[in-house]
Structures are given as structure tokens and as C-alpha cells.
Records
---
Amino acid sequence: GQSYEIRMLDNRKLGELPEINGKLVKSIFRVVFHDRRLQYTEHQQLEGWRWNRPGDRILDIDIPMSVGIIDPRANPTQLNTVEFLWDPSKRTSVFIQVHCISTEFTMRKHGGEKGVPFRVQIDTFKENENGEYTEHLHSASCQIKVFKPKGADRKQKTDREKMEKRTPHEKEKYQPSYETTILTEVG
């Protein structure tokens, strides 16, 4: 339920894709499973979630916080997907909220278990000659884990304690934490 900002940036090289200058593009955000094993059963997993949480959505846009998004939509049948139009030449920030936690998809549900990692994937499309946003421009994603606030604090604390016990050489294998995450381009 916490709102997280995703800043949309036009990362074209000079002169690249001039046909989208002054035009809107459509971005579709999805929360999907990171583990391949769960990807195969994603439909059943999401149906089970829908059954246990009637009327709830997995992903929403915090519209009052967002800047520069046009025509935001959430399809009632796709609980893990939201979409909107935006102008790459203007400042655009979308604030998303994830309403499920990583442990809702683990086998044991009595707390303390390792939550499943999700991915936020963003696919961006331009208009075709019929005015439909079907021509793929770009895809990017990053891994996320979602906890309840107390669980997140506890996880950060135990992660910090684990890191402090490691040798400097072992610490080199881990990424430092950052204020922001640059989403990884999906090929």
C-alpha cells in the first residue's frame, strides 16, 4: 500500500525514433513473479489470490501523487496490471502501490518465511497507423520484495546484522544499497 515513485525518462539517443516527438506513448506496468517456477503457475497463483482477497487489486497507481500521466487505467480482470499514456518530452512520475506481500505466495503462512520476489515490469509502446498502442518501444524491470511495515523493518535489521558479520572480502560480492534503482532493460 506504500506509494513508490517511478520516474519515466526519455532515454533515446539524439535523432532516434523521431516519429514519437510530440506524441504520447503508452506504458503498461505489471507486477509479476521473479522466479521462473512461479511464472509457470502465475495464472493459478493470481486466481488464488483473487479468491482470498475479493475486490482487491495487486497493483494500483496513486493518481494524486503522480505527475504527467494521462488516462490511467486499471483493467478489473488484470489485478496485477496498470497502464497510462505519457509525453516523453514532459516530466512524468508515476507512483505505484503494491497491495500484496511476498509471503502471500509462499507455502507456509505462519510468518518468518522467506517471501517470494516479484518483478515490476514496464513495457512501453508507440501508436501504429491505426492509433493503437501496439508497437513495442522499450521494456525494463527490477526485482522487488513487499513486506508489511514491521516485517520490512525487521528484514532490514537482520540483513544489516548479517552484513556486519561478513569479512570485507565477502562484503565485496554484494551490491551497496542506493536511494534509487535504475530499472534494467529487458532485451
Note: The chain is about 20% helix and 30% strand.
---
Amino acid sequence: FDLAMAPDQVSKRLDGVPVYTVSNHDNEFVLISDSNGHKSLGLFCFRHEDAEALLAQIRDREPGLGRGAKIVAVSLDKVYQLKTEGIAFRFLPDPLQVKHALESRAKAGDPGKAFDGVPVFQSDNLVLRSKNRRFCPIFFSKEDLERALLGAFKQQQKINPALKVNTDIQVGSFEDVLQRLESSDDGSGWGDVVFIPPGMDALSHFSEKVS
């Protein structure tokens, strides 16, 4: 992997995607022990509501720690830096997006009952372009991708009214995409990935990233 992306290149692609965790009164991430009590993990949620539930559990189990604890938003590129520093952490995906991912895989003939990792969504029918280069937007929300696809097809139908809407969507895991980025060179196609934060308009975020 001599041509693999450097950590700072991967980190740039994660900038601007928020996750939520719990910090103590010194603004240090609160680490949670695993079931065996042997390893401490930082937990990061993709929904503020899940971070609130995590905070409630911490206050219930450790009232002393919980009194000064609070929810903080962290950009994914900062979390990735923790990985390069050897700090263990785990993501808690949005349950609704996990449900969407399982439904999509079932339609594709893979009726699994569990999804490993944080689901992400993309479509071959949605490509963004800038300066003769194509970019593949990857969404953390299936609803956001569907809105982007519908908007793109409406624009195309102004040129070609006979064009039919195609909402074909592929599902993968964020962790798998991250691994592929780490082991691919910038010209492999994986270097053209753009992550779209939940609730964000794809074109607006892409324009901001390109600028």
C-alpha cells in the first residue's frame, strides 16, 4: 500500500460530519468499560438523542461523574485522529438507518437480521462533478439520498422530460468505506468519496468542501 492515502487525506473527507459523545467537566471524553471491564471505549453517536440516552446511563451508573458530564458534538475527522493515536472507540448508528439498511439488503436477497457497523448509502445515479472530476456522495441518511436523487432527476427531466426516475440505492458500512480509503490511492476512485452529513443538502455540502 505504498500509494495508500495518508491519514490527513482521509481525515479531510470526514471533516464537517458531526457525531455526539459525552465529556466530563474537564472536557475529556468519557470512556465506557466493555462487558468484561478490561477495555475502555469512547462511544460516539450519530444522533443527539442517542447521546442523551448515553448521558442518562452514565448519570445513573456513576452519579459523581454524571454531575459534570455533558453532550458534545465532535467532527468525524477529530474522531479519526483518535484512531490514528490508538484510542479505542465505537460508533452507535442511528437505529432507523440500520432498519433501512436491513430492508435494502433484504430486497437485494440478503435477509440478514443484523447489520455490522454504521450504514451508509449511495447511488450510481447520483454523481457530483467539479473541474472535470467526478465525486461519489455517500450519505449517512437514506432519506437524504432519496431527496438528492429526486432533486437531481427533476433537474434532468427539464432537459429530457421522458427521463424516468431511478432511485436505485446501494448500502454499505462506514467502517468498510473508511478501510478502503485507508488502503487506496487518491486515483483509485475511492479518493473521490464525499461524505454527506445527516440532514445536509448534498450540493451545498459538496460546494463547501470543494471551495
Note: The chain has two domains: 18-92, 96-210.
---
Amino acid sequence: MALTAETESRLYRSLRAAAGAAAHLVALGFPTAVALLARPGSSLFSWHPLLMALAFSFLMTEALLIFSPETSLLRSFSRKVKVRVHWALQLLALLCALLGLGIITYNKHLNGKAHFVTWHGLTGLLTVLYAGGQCAGGVLLLYPKLMKNWTLAKLKLYHATSGLVGYLLGCASLMLGMCSLWFTALVTSVSWYLAMLCPLLTSLVIMNQVSNAYLYRKRSQH
């Protein structure tokens, strides 16, 4: 029996809500697992994977999910509050990423190792720099009058699009980190594949959220 349009819409919203709930669990569960593996404080290096997991798995994911109509933890709050929390989480993510980058750079210096010679290192550096630029670009949304030739709607669209690119870069950096000798020595077999699925799941949820927001804006213009 064919599904009605209303039933399909309800089913789609339910699936999105379930995927969003899973993304929340993964966003928190992945850094928790990394913390158990790294044992922060056991070495200088141990802080690097934890800080990067916190930045790009937990903080940045939650900062973007705040605007999800189905899974936001602040659905009952005004958009102004959501924007402020988004800003706070993004700044915390950037600080964690900068600290994580500084720690791994200093650790390599102490051990006489070359800097940024792997795909993980290069992607991580690019991601942190991009995140810094994205945060700086977000200032334009707070003060749109600085861009006189751009409408607020266009600024929001470009910020969301470039933010998605930055988030995908962060997920790629995490996945490359899981290919490192440190991670593969601790996580093997099925557990490794499950770990790789974590950033894949959250990136798919965020991409769906951004694409739906884009389609909504397009429809509202007609």
C-alpha cells in the first residue's frame, strides 16, 4: 500500500530525529572513548587526541545541532539564545583545537620529529586555520552593517555553507587520526571500523541539516 504524503513526511521527520539523537550520543561518546584510550596526563601527547576529539566531535557538532528543528537541545529557546550558545561552543572548539595543535607541535619538537609531514598533520593544520577563519567570518553575522553590499540572508547562507566545509574538514582530520600508529595500536578489528563510523554519522546528519535549511530558504523566497 502506498504511503500518503503526510505519512512520508512524518516518517522522514522521525528518521531525522532518530539520526540526530544518534549524533548527540556519538558526539559525546567518541571523545569519552578517546579519553579512555589516551589517559590524559599520562604524557604530553595524551592531551592532543582528547582536545581534538572534544573540538571537532563534541563541541562543533553540538554547536551545529543547536539549529536543528528536530534534535536541538535548545528547541524551546529563542534564536538569539541559540546563536549565543553556538558562538560559545564554536569558540571553545577553536580554543581546544589551537591548544591541541600547540601541544602536538611542541611534543614533536621535544622528540625531534618533523612537523606536518603526514596527511593527518596537514589536514589538521588546515582545519584549525579554517576554523579560525570561520569564527572570524561569523563576526559579520553579528555586525552585518560591515558588509553593506551583502544581505543578511546571503551572509547566513555563506556562513552555513563554509561552516559545513570546516566541519567536514574536522571529521576528515579525525578519521585520518584514526589511521595513525597510535590509534591503530590501541583499536583494532571491528572496534576500529565502528570508530571510523562516528565522524561519518555526524557529518551525514549535519549535511542533511544544512541542505534542508538551504532548501527552506529557497522555498521561502518564492
Note: The chain has a mean pLDDT of 90.
---
Amino acid sequence: MKFLLVFDFDHTIIDENSDTWIVKCAPEKKLPNGLRNSYRPGHWTEYMGRVFVYLGDNGVKEDEMKRTMTTIPFTAGMVDLLGFIGENKELFDCIIVSDSNTVFIDWILKAADFHKVFDEVFTNPAAFSSTGYLTVQNFHAHHCAKCPKNLCKKKVLKEFLDKQLERGVSYTKIVYIGDGGNDLCPVMFLRKDDVAMPREGYILEKKISQLAKDLRPVECSVLVWSSAFDIMSYLKLLIKE
């Protein structure tokens, strides 16, 4: 009996968006209008690439970025939840599927000593260039019309499950914890024994509600959370069953 926990990162594990938080490093803590207005829907990674060039051009170095990123608050109760999962790793496999990037997630998890809780992190690859600029790439290519160009979370989840099956690992239940519009695609992939946990008041919850109103409800159970203590209560019930 093993459960798979799938976490989004921004506004789920941390209570902010890591990509917009980095703007605190910019001169006057803001971006010029031309750069801010250059974002095109579905092309977030390219936009962040331009933001990182701007920061690099303004002399923002890796250590300053790291200091800034590790001040992001975790969502209420998340520290306790991750501690609980860490103590029960024999029951839970745990992955992150996020539109952030490897550098930010790595910094934040390591600073709080949570990197061991997660078996794998699927996010946009990032690295510092020889000139000290942070660069980011799209996670993969895909053909899903519903998702941003750089990342279809359903594809990531499906490929992970296929790989685990090849290793002889299957899950009693998948619990998907997220908040954003790009979490709907993987949630629609879940089956009736699985559970979607959308964050209360965020886009994912609204989209799931709208599907139910349109009489096209998701197949899995839906449990809304407002703090990570709600998630922990549910996981405690799950392992008692």
C-alpha cells in the first residue's frame, strides 16, 4: 500500500510565486513596463528568461538571488505537513510538478531541509551561465492544447506513473495538491479512487467547480484545503484506513 502525493510549488508549498518574488532583487524592486508587458500567454518561461537577463544586466548576483528566494514564506501548516510526510516516507512517494525552475526550488527546499521529502522534482531546468546570468529552459515539448507551451503536467504525471510501473511500483491512490489553472489538466487525468486537493479561493478550485456546474465533473474526489493542516488531517485518515 503506497500513496503518491503530487505537489505544485508556487502558492501551494510556498505562499507566493517564486518567479514574481525574484523581482525584489531588481532595481527599486520593480521591472520596467516594457519588460513587464512583454509576457505572452503560454510563454512564461521565455518571459522569465528576459527577466533574468535584466537582473544580470543590473549586476544582480547568484548569492543575492539565493538570499532573497530563501525568505519566501511557506504556506500555513506546510512545514508541519512536510515534516509529517518525511516521517512516513515508507507510505508516501512524493513529487513536485511545477512551472518554477530547478534553481529556485532547490534553494528553497534545501534551505528548509525538505529536499529529502521529495523523490523527484519536475520543473523547468535552470542554471547560471559562465557570466553569472541565470538561464531557464522549457521543461519539455508536448502536444496538449490546454497547457502552456513549456509544461503539460498531465504528461509529466503519466510518464512518471509509467516509469514507476516498469519498476514494479503502483499506487493505491494519487493525491494531487495544487492551486493553478495548469493543475487542471493532470487533475482531469485522475481516476475515481484518486483525490484532487485544490487550494481554496484559487483558480484550480474555481475551474473544478465550473466543470461540475457544466455537468462535466472530474472523475476523482475533490477536497478543498485552505491550510496544509487540512491536507495533513486527510493524510492521517488515509493511513488509518
Note: The chain is about 40% helix and 15% strand.
